[in-house]
C-alpha cells in the first residue's frame, strides 16, 4: 500500500482514539460537551484531522 495512504490511515486511527478517550473518560451529556470548550476544541480538532486525512 502507498506510504501516503498508510500515514493517512494512521492519522485517522489516532484521531479516533483521541476522540474516544476525550468523550468516554467520564459520563458526559451534550450539555456537558457544549459547556466544555477544551473538550469541544479537542474533538473538533481531531475531526478536522480525519477530514483532512481522508481527502
Main pleated sheet: none
Alpha carbon gap, first and last residue: 16 Å
Order of helices and strands: HHH
Low-confidence stretches: none
Structural class: mainly alpha
* Shape annotation: elongated
Query: How many helical stretches?
Result: 3
Q: What value does the Rg take, in angstroms? A: 13 Å
Strand elements, count: 0
**What oligomeric assembly is this protein in?**
single chain
The helicity comes to: over 70%
Features:
single chain; mainly alpha; 55 residues
Explain what this protein looks like in three dimensions.
Helix content is 82%, strand content 0%. The protein has helices at residues 3-24, 30-35, 37-53. The chain is elongated and about 40 Å long. The relative contact order is 0.19.
Outline:
With 55 residues, the chain is mainly α. The chain has helices at residues 3-24, 30-35, 37-53.
Which SSEs are present, and which pair or pack?
Blueprint: H1 3-24, H2 30-35, H3 37-53
Helix pairs in contact: 1-3
Amino acid at each position: 500500500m502507498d506510504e501516503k495512504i498508510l500515514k493517512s490511515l494512521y492519522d485517522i486511527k489516532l484521531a479516533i482514539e483521541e476522540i474516544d478517550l476525550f468523550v468516554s473518560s467520564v459520563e458526559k451529556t451534550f450539555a456537558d460537551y457544549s459547556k466544555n470548550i477544551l473538550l469541544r476544541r479537542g474533538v473538533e480538532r481531531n475531526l478536522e484531522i480525519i477530514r483532512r486525512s481522508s481527502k
